Amino acid sequence: MPAPSRRPYAARMAPDDRRRQLLDAALRIIIRDGYGAVSIETIAREVDVSRPVIYGVFDDLGDLLGALLDRQEKRALAQLGAGLPATPGDEDPRAFVVGFVRSMVDVVTKDPDTWHPILLPPDGTPRVVRERIDRDRERVREQFAALLAWALERRGGSAGVDLELASHSLLVVVEQWGRLVLRDPERFTAERLAGFVERLLDGLATAGEPPRDGR
């Protein structure tokens, strides 16, 4: 009678590397199969290690998922912050907006695993995750409101624009564009989206100018 097969011995890894490996594995499972598919066993199979290896790093599944949520939140906010400075200074609003669009498309394209669970949350996303996303979304909306106020001031005043509604609307557009990039990055490129924004801003600027014939 043949002896039962044994799982290959898991190669030793530095603690930080092992932690990163397990978090990355959990994220892949979430994106591919949803939160309901994540367990210590599925993570162990994903990276071909034994359950004790995982318990040597995390207390339990809740501890692992909490660490994953913290990491992904920090990563997403850092990427947003890099493309969305709080004080653009004397930069031209048009150039700033176009540059921001290019930056965000680049971010989503290069790190889709971070943005997929945020912009295209899988079925069964836990309430604690949804609440964290909503909290961060509101933080980003407030940044949008401040930047809209800056841009309008640079162009001569807000003219009665409702910044709260405008920032909500802008957030909806940015999130939808992110989804388009995730679903079809070759079709919805930085050049295409930035070009659309450039033409839109040029059209708005032209619409605000008086007729050339004086009428």
Largest sheet: none
Extended strand count = 0
**CATH-defined architecture of the largest domain:** Orthogonal Bundle
Distance between the first and last residues' Cα: 98 Å
Oligomer: single chain
Count of discrete domains = 2
Please tell me about this protein's structure.
It is a single chain. This protein has about 220 residues and is mostly helical. The chain has 2 domains: about 45 residues, Arc Repressor Mutant, subunit A (Orthogonal Bundle); about 140 residues, Tetracycline Repressor, domain 2, CATH 1.10.357.10. Helices cover about 70% and strands about 0% of the residues. Helix 1 packs across helix 2, helix 5 packs across helix 6 and helix 7 packs across helix 8. The chain is elongated and about 65 Å long. The termini are far apart. The relative contact order is 0.10. The N terminus is likely disordered.
Keywords:
Tetracycline Repressor, domain 2, mainly alpha, Arc Repressor Mutant, subunit A, 2 domains, disordered N terminus, 215 residues, 9 helices, single chain
Strand and helix layout:
Blueprint: H1 15-33, H2 40-47, H3 51-55, H4 61-83, H5 93-110, H6 112-119, H7 127-154, H8 163-183, H9 190-207
Summarize the structure.
By secondary structure, the protein is an all-alpha fold. The protein has helices at residues 15-33, 40-47, 51-55, 61-83, 93-110, 112-119, 127-154, 163-183, 190-207.
